[in-house]
Amino acid sequence: xxxxxxxxxxxxxxxxxxxxxxxxxxxxxxxxxxxxxxxxxxxxxxxxxxxxxxxxxxxxxxxxxxxxxxxxxxxxxxxxxxxxxxxxxxxxxxxxxxxxxxxxxxxxxxxxxxxxxxxxxxxxxxxxxxxxxxxxxxxxxxxxxxxxxxxxxxxxxxxxxxxxxxxxxxxxxxxxxxxxxxxxxxxxxxxxxxxxxxxxxxxxxxxxxxxxxxxxxxxxxxxxxxxxxxxxxxxxxxxxxxxxxxxxxxxxxxxxxxxxxxxxxxxxxxxxxxxxxxxxxxxxxxxxxxxxxxxxxxxxxxxxxxxxxxxxxxxxxxxxxxxxxxxxxxxxxxxxxxxxxxxxxxxxxxxxxxxxxxxxxxxxxxxxxxxxxxxxxxxxxxxxxxxxxxxxxxxxxxxxxxxxxxxxxxxxxxxxxxxxxxxxxxxxxxxxxxxxxxxxxxxxxxxxxxxxxxxxxxxxxxxxxxxxxxxxxxxxxxxxxxxxxxxxxxxxxxxxxxxxxxxxxxxxxxxxxxxxxxxxxxxxxxxxxxxxxxxxxxxxxxxxxxxxxxxxxxxxxxxxxxxxxxxxxxxxxxxxxxxxxxxxxxxxxxxxxxxxxxxxxxxxxxxxxxxxxxxxxxxxxxxxxxxxxxxxxxxxxxxxxxxxxxxxxxxxxxxxxxxxxxxxxxxxxxxxxxxxxxxxxxxxxxxxxxxxxxxxxxxxxxxxxxxxxxxxxxxxxxxxxxxxxxxxxxxxxxxxxxxxxxxxxxxxxxxxxxxxxxxxxxxxxxxxxxxxxxxxxxxxxxxxxxxx
Length: 788
Hints:
Blueprint: H1 2-29, H2 39-48, H3 52-59, H4 67-79, H5 83-108, H6 118-128, H7 130-136, H8 142-161, H9 168-183, H10 190-209, H11 216-233, H12 237-244, H13 256-269, H14 281-289, H15 300-320, H16 336-348, H17 356-382, H18 391-401, E1 407-410, H19 415-422, E2 429-431, H20 440-450, E3 456-461, H21 464-467, H22 472-480, E4 482-489, E5 492-498, E6 509-516, E7 523-531, E8 535-537, E9 541-549, E10 558-565, E11 571-577, E12 594-602, E13 610-620, E14 636-644, E15 659-665, E16 668-677, E17 693-702, E18 711-717, E19 723-729, E20 745-753, E21 761-770, E22 780-786
Parallel strand pairs: 1-2, 1-3, 8-14
Antiparallel strand pairs: 3-5, 4-5, 6-7, 7-9, 9-12, 10-11, 10-13, 13-14, 15-16, 16-17, 17-20, 18-19, 18-21, 21-22
Helix pairs in contact: 1-5, 1-6, 2-4, 2-19, 5-6, 5-7, 5-8, 5-16, 6-16, 7-17, 8-9, 8-10, 9-11, 10-15, 13-14, 15-16, 16-17, 20-22
């Protein structure tokens, strides 16, 4: 009986590492291809498609050594170049890293530790670490970098723990291999080597000082190992020396506590900023000061200091060398295993089972670490704010809306690889500026050649501070074209410009309407406007020039709005921006200066034909307060614009629908819908509260002649099944279905005001088409959440 009782804990203990590794694998493979490749990942895929010699030659002029690209090249030849394939290499390396953290925990585990020991605790923390999960789902070298760091430390500690002749040579060779591989993976790896050497020197000092008879031969052997690392890296050393000199430092001084808080937050929650960010350095301090009183394979002082030195030294060097900047925080992945070991040590040390106070402390730290990890993982997996740059969506959009005469400009030439990975359209692509620093004359000449009259220019703007700090590309387009779109896809902006057709400029219409800020009394006069055409097709860009003048110096930065409205005041086209596309803020205007301000007004591609009103005006960029015209109105009305039927129905990718539906109702197909709080199309996840207005967009396609005028009834039903808001109208506003043609795609917009007394809970939006003969079809249901 006693043997059986003892076998179950042993079995569970043996299965625990496997369970941790399976957890790590699941988290690293979960939705691994849900996000688009971003710029650097596109570079990885493109470089890995070359032969090994070419990769080495190209890496010599790059900021990264070639080893990761070599490994990825072999991996791509085995598995392909899909998003899942190229990222799965990092995912598997991430699982191997978790296994190494477990092995390191065994080496550093205090003597006599029970099942609740350092190794499984540290490995579990590594398995759920958002920081490690993020980079294990990225086709870059950072997980490999952390793996070499962990292997180098593990081999060095095992070498210290073995006596000469007891496999010490084998562990020494493993260290040499891991250290050299780390150097061939990333130029930040010397941070790890400094920390590892300090731990080994500490061990030597303790042994020599303690009179244990440690000979200088052991020191000589360690130095020989370092020489072996240097010998293996010698062919690449001149390249590394040259490239390290190109890293820009940090000009501004770094504040210590905020920097440590940011470091801890990155290690604990990954990209997601934790709510306790400002005090997160306290967690780091707690982990650093806790030392075990006994050790297994190593001296207690060495075992206690090793993860501390591993974490502290690289962070200190990053701060001292001027490398602390947001773009370099990913280098902290080399110390992430040390963070996991420190957490595991606090959770699994022998002191925790002897002192109640330490047990309470470990429980609180464990809850904090786990909650921080879950918080970070949730944000990484679900929050669009932490998503990678979405080249996939930009390419799909351009494929859908591109037409002959359009062009694509990539302001950073490095975008070519990732954009080509996704884009299968026919538009010509121009990387500009072609030189760094940019040649103004050559850049402007190239833009003048590609911007064809009557066409459009789509600009993908990334890292403009480095690629085009003088804004040559944007400045020329702002002056010679009409910006209609400026949307962020992660850290990339997609801007769309309409190029005016020659001879299409209409004479300016004089207005001379003063707009006054009701709070400051400052005034801006709208002198007049030019409208290139009063008729545009759905999906096209209306081109409007506004002429402004201020009689005095303005101390507020006002934004301009240009809106196209239907008869129910729904927005069908919108452009909000500071004057000059942001290059001419009102605070820089000279008194009496006439400011010529171009605006492209994008017409949604599913806008039904009809006449639409145009309103323009100004509002305070901070408060949203509109400036008022003499009659007290917050806008000025321009000549209406007639929207005409497009030459072809809009493809689904051009509609930017929040959700697809694919629900058929006789001749009508509900393609999809948008459901959000009114005024929050840019933030569709914004919570809906009682008293708000629910805005609904429905996207329809005629699969057959509608055979008359259809209606659609929308009802919002509360959790108790009672309707709280409803509206019945034509599916596409004032454009009746009797005029629809087969294949037409139109959008209808609807507003449903929620009563202030509406209870919070899960609501149901019922979308029920009504046939011309009065027949009611089964409604389509959409869940809607209402918060307190």
